[in-house]
Write the structure tokens for this entry.
Amino acid sequence: MVDAVVAVLAGAASVLMVWGLVAARRGRPPGPAMLLTGAAVEALLLVQALVAVVGMVAGPGPAGSTVLFVSYLATVVLVLPAALGWALVERDRWSSAVVAVGAFTVAAMVVRLWDVWEGGVQVGGPGA
């Protein structure tokens, strides 16, 4: 995993989360700019996923649990498209909140992916 991409992804997803929360608070559905920002974050997620898969195939792979890493990787690339799809179908203030929740989930999962890649957490925790 590329540390700089992890930082950019976590930051961009956090900005998208705040943007979604502000729009929901103002009673506005997500506009085209918010949806395009979400699509850009998703594109960067796909790049990071490709880098991670190449790293697993060509290199040593994650220092933590490979099963846990692959599970997170498969899930994180699906969360934002689901939230953005919901926002496109249901155009009300709550769809902005859905984008915010999806963006928060992506930010948290990207940091967790990085943690598992670096070997910070093992399955079962201490003493397992």
